[in-house]
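Narrative of accomplishments. A recurring question from our advisory board has been how the design workflow behaves on a single, concrete structure rather than in aggregate. To address it, we present the structure tokens for one chain from the evaluation set, followed by the sequence designed for it. No filtering or post-editing was applied between the two.
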């Protein structure tokens, strides 16, 4: 046998041994701590415990992912896109055939905090168990009581994931979980100074799972930070459903550095504040299904915690308020194509000074979404438009129309660039190629929605 063949066989043997070893490692069970009922009567929980669990489920926004469009609450079936295909949320009602009606407390805990289904399979991290790992034992008991006794059972079968083989194999997920998911350790609140700060840290890091969207991820898809000790935590995440998850740290341009605590509270309760607004379906769903129904005390705590965060990595964008653009527009002295497009399409609502109308239309001057280093959200907003969710505190669901029908790729790029570089905004330009890519995505989404 030639040396080449011997070498190939040797490499193949090493690879085979490695694959078998990885498979065996993945299939090894994960030991978890049985939390037990504590002082709670989980067989016949009282109304107070069930209500506590209901509120915690609101804070965790469980209904947003576990409810399909026009579907029954918590019955699952919502499609979620991943790099390898679509996964569908599961039925988490107490139906014994299709849901979690046969789950023990520890089965429930293993699924929520460890990412392990009762079958032993690892859950896709679309379920934010890396964040839920910090939920306290008492809160887990309350959540279990609510889902077992406070949620109506729905006999809806679970949908199989649309992921082709071999990506559909579960054992690589188990390796991912064992390698990257944080240990299940309830958050130590004593390290935070003050009750509000501690409560805010708990809500943001665990139940609210804010980092699942707003923290950047590695190429292996794990979050790069889990708490405020790392400046990447909440420094801005990937594009989700076409919208960029913004920086929640104190960066002055694309972050919340110029926001007050009240601005954050208003955004979470009303989807708008004095100078900005929620755009895009992911965060609109959070406000609609979760944060608008949280207590004022908890919203205050979240605001206190977010305002305690130092700025994250340095931004390319800057903002220094300036009235030069407004004066030039009013005097007819700005004849660039971007300025003309702004006057024709935007100024009626956002005004020539880009301050818009407080709490009605968001300001464009100094807006973090405008100043983000990545212009994806602003481009999508110009092309497809968006609507504010109707909330108890601000029931009018005001909307912005899309302009894809009347703007070419080059025109949209010039308009977006004008907005990002006027009134003191100092952000990078957009180009026609970026617009074309996002337009194609929007068109594809529209085709899928027809079926």
């Amino acid at each position: 046998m030639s040396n080449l063949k011997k070498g190939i066989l040797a490499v193949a043997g090493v690879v085979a041994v490695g694959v078998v070893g990885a498979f065996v490692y993945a299939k090894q069970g994960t030991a978890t701590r049985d939390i037990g009922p504590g002082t709670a009567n989980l067989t016949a929980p009282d109304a107070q415990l069930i209500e506590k669990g209901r509120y915690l489920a609101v804070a965790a926004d469980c209904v947003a992912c576990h409810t399909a469009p026009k579907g029954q609450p918590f019955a699952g079936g919502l499609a979620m896109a991943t790099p390898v295909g679509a996964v569908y949320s599961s039925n988490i009602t107490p139906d014994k055939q299709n849901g979690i009606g046969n789950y023990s407390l520890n089965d429930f805990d293993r699924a929520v905090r460890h990412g392990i289904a009762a079958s032993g399979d690892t859950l896709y991290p679309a379920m934010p168990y890396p964040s839920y790992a910090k939920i306290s034992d008492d809160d887990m008991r309350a959540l279990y009581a609510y889902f077992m006794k406070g949620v109506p059972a729905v006999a809806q079968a679970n949908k199989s994931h649309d992921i082709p083989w071999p990506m559909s194999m579960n054992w690589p997920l188990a390796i991912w979980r064992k390698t990257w998911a944080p240990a299940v350790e309830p958050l130590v609140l004593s390290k935070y100074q003050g009750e509000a700060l501690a409560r805010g840290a708990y809500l943001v890091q665990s139940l609210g799972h804010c980092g699942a969207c707003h923290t950047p991820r590695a190429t292996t898809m794990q979050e790069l930070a889990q708490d405020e000790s790392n400046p990447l935590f909440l420094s801005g995440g990937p594009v989700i459903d076409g919208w960029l998850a913004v920086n929640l740290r104190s960066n002055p341009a694309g972050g919340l550095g110029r926001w007050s605590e009240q601005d954050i509270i208003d955004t979470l309760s009303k989807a708008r504040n004095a100078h900005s607004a929620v755009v895009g379906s992911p965060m609109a769903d959070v406000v609609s299904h979760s944060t608008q129904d949280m207590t004022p005390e908890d919203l205050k705590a979240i605001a206190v915690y977010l305002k305690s965060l130092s700025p994250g990595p340095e931004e390319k964008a800057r903002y220094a308020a300036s009235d030069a653009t407004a004066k030039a527009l009013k005097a007819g002295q700005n004849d660039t194509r971007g300025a003309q497009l702004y006057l024709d399409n935007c100024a009626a609502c956002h005004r020539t000074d880009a301050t818009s109308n407080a709490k009605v239309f968001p300001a464009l001057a100094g807006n973090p979404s405008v100043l983000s280093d990545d212009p994806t959200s602003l481009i999508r907003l110009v092309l497809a438009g968006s609507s504010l969710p109707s909330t108890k505190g601000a029931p009018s669901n005001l909307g912005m129309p899309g302009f894809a029908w009347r703007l070419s790729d080059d025109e949209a790029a010039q308009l977006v660039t004008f907005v990002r570089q006027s009134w003191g905004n100092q952000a990078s330009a957009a180009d026609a190629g970026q617009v074309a890519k996002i337009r194609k995505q929007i068109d594809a989404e529209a085709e899928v929605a027809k079926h």
